[in-house]
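Folds abound. Consider this:
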Amino acid sequence: QVQLVESGGGLVQAGGSLRLSCAASGTFFSINTMAWYRQAPGKQRELVAVITSGGDENYADSVKGRFIISRNNALNTVYLQMHDLRPEDTAVYYCNARGAYFLNSWGKGTLVTVSS
């Protein structure tokens, strides 16, 4: 069982920056990928960025060049540095971890609100 706890959300003006963190705890064998998803009001949850245990990164086209995902494998923590935030980035951001033995866990989410 893995528990994921996100932090770092909040209210920011357009053009500003925020850094999200997600720490994994509990009993698990290994985490392969860690990712950030987001869900805006009235929309489906979408992938924002994903990073493998080896450091390979992938981003949604809408955030390329503005968001950076990173992780600390020793701490089982993933980060999302967000720059040049836009009102359309407003959403609840969820952390996801996948790994061995069908591990697929979600955090409860952290709200990011970008004002224009």
Remarks:
- The radius of gyration is 14 Å.
- The CA atoms of residues 47 and 78 lie 15 Å apart.
